Amino acid sequence: MSFETWKIVTSVSAVQVLSECVFFAQGIFASEEKSHEETELDWIRICVPLFYAVTRHISEACWRWIIGGYGGRVTTILGITTVAVSVIAASCQEILAGNVAYVVLGGIGMGLVRLQIKLMKLHSGTAEWKLMGTGVSGIGLSLWPLIACLFIRKLGPKYALLVLSGITLHAVPLALLVKPKAIIACEEDEPQNPDEGITTVSITPAVPETLPSLEQYRMAYQLIEYDSYVVRPPYYVEVLPGIPEESECESDHDQDEENQTAVVLNAEESGVGVNGGVRQEERHGRESHLQEKTRDINLKGIDVLPKGVELTPFTYSLFVANVLLRLGDQFGVAVVISILPVFASQLLPGLRVEETAFLVSLCGFSRTLTELPLVALYQKSGKSQFVFLGGPFFASAGLYLTWISRTLDAMTLASFGLGIGSGAASAALQVLTPRECPRISDAADIVVGVALLATIPLTRIFILKNAIQACFLMAAWIYAAAAITSGFNFRRRT
């Protein structure tokens, strides 16, 4: 793996992992406050990660519309700094409103960072990003709860936030040093799989090489803003609107060649002479056709193809599966990082901070242990049926085990099972969303944000009725719906 890719993976993963670690500290803080004095506002402290996820998803789509693209190093550094400042502000406040302000500010900053993350994924190489990004994030989710536990134990939850925010700032110089390669060929990124519409291509720059590498991608994606092109994902060719089937493209090309041959034969049979003007027009037409063909090949190389196919029920159903997987993943992370410590402290009042951190760390470790082999298996064989069908159901089973846990041993086993299911579902999500159309991605982000926002009042009702376990059931139902929708897609496909 190249040093440039390491810088990219480290810089973008650090912000996500550390922000989630901060939410773990927030969850510990909320559990301690709730154990001291129960009030009707406890649900706000518990729903801190949900507020963050809502703001991040919605702000990401809004930032792309405001900036008109994916931003650059300046916007990335601004987002990282915003996340760090929001954590510092949260560590210095005493009132509950400060937590809400921190969540909103941190979500806005993370939405700005994720714009550049999407662009960096294209530069770093799909295969390398999936494996190394998964590994770095998984190690962070496994180790950072324990490290945060040390800070919380020695300094307390509030000052631990201050230390973690300072560590988050180390991603700023990394973002300054990142210089992604211009365009990376993807002969080894994805195996050719005719069932999923994946083709191996050699990428050729679609714009003059004198421009900076990031500008090449920005100019290509400007075509999308005018509704002329959409990004072609590496999975089913019917997934996103405007993506023609390869067989249709081949048949159209063959039909054009037959028509041209028929015209030439008719001209020769009729004895019509071709003068110099006609030959010049034909030469000009060939050159124009060659230029258009070269442009289409270049755009195809960076996964951009012209529109031409209407939406199908398969497209809608797979989009719904994508949204459900993303919603389940975000809600699952919120459950593990914030709601699980509160639930554990409520169920076992004498539970120590170290034991709570171990539960979260065990979940992150089992998630990584499951996600890495599944992603590697998919890259090698291209088989995703098991990932799509098994992952969400395993996650639902883990959440159900957490719901019925009444002892520390049962909760430990449930955390391990929840991590396995969450890792499998996250692997399925990586298969679906590495190269989405920006408009489809924005729509999915807004849908996920609104859905998470709708779960906050339900969480308040459940917690006030001393039924916090319903949060686990809610995430389990989301994963189950994603698995059923994915199974429906594969049945339609076969």
Automatic annotation (TrEMBL):
InterPro entries: MFS_trans_sf, Proton-linked_MCT. Keywords: Membrane, Transmembrane, Transmembrane helix. GO terms for molecular function: monocarboxylic acid transmembrane transporter activity. The chain crosses the membrane at residues 65-89, 95-117, 129-153, 385-404, 410-431, 443-461, 467-490. This is Uncharacterized protein LOC107222437 isoform X1. The lineage of its organism: Eukaryota, Metazoa, Ecdysozoa, Arthropoda, Hexapoda.
